[in-house]
Amino acid sequence: MNVKPKVLVVYYTQTGQLKRIVDHVLAPLDGKVDVTYEQLVPVEPFVFPWKKQTFYDTMPETVLGRPRGIQPLKVDVNAHFDLVILAYQPWFLSPSQPTAAFLQSEQGAQLLKGKNVITLLGSRNMWLNAQEKVKGYLDKAGAKLVGNIVLVDKSPNLVSLITVLRWAFKGKKEATRYLPQAGVQENEIVTSNRFAAPIEKALSNNSWNTLHPELLALDSVELLPNLILLEDRGIKAFRYWAKFISAKGGPGAEARQPRVTMYRSLLLVGIFVLTPITLISSLIKLNLKKNELQREVEYYKGISLR
Fold first, then answer.
1. Per residue in 144-167, pLDDT tens?
2. Which residues contact 130 (CB under 8 A, 6 or more apart)?
3. TM spans, by residue (predicted)?
4. CATH of the structural domain 6-223, one choice from 3.40.50.10090, 3.40.50.800, 3.40.50.970, 3.40.50.360
């Protein structure tokens, strides 16, 4: 009697989009693997749609890696799994707070130790810093990152910003006369089932070293060079504001709300000004330092940790 490979999916989703991505990726493996789902549940829920001030007030602790706690895991952390799929979203260019809380927890570390891990992201378009942090957490836990799959909203940067904020604050995902549907495009979600074949092969043969190259051959990670520059500038700004705001107290503290308001007022203006400037500078850098930037692209598409 053949024993089915055991796969654990650890995920957190507010809208359900990430769970749909997971389901499509794993659909061809139905009946071939034994899948366990572990949904991360914050002790104090993050309410969706967001209130604007609450949304922006969540940034400092997200960026500084001081997440709100999660409820104890239901899965047996000592159980055997051939593969763990960690499905998450970036918040403010960092892992979502429930994801960070899991990765920082003793239960999470115990569960991940010695495990093969695939990271699976559903994102707007910028995820590099979040993935670097996740790589660090996995490395510290003694896990082995064997693959990365990133599904992003492929609308132009500023368009996707408008649609995702409309979704976050009003709960409206559908397309309008002037705006496309928010989130990862439906075709990207539906066709993500193509990643099941190399995953099944790795599980069957216990051949993890070739998995990520095979995923990349199926366009599991696509990255525009200008986004590296844009995100690098963005995370530096977020870190400054995170420290500036948190100096006045913890989440929801009345004393820090003026600084949160100042930050949210400047953020959108900064993004709309920064994006075209960064696009121009990235085109210049592409010409002047093409090889250097290409090395950065290859690094971020990979699974190694500097």
1. 999 999 999 999 888 998 999 999
2. 88, 90, 91, 93, 94, 95, 121, 123
3. 266-286
4. 3.40.50.360
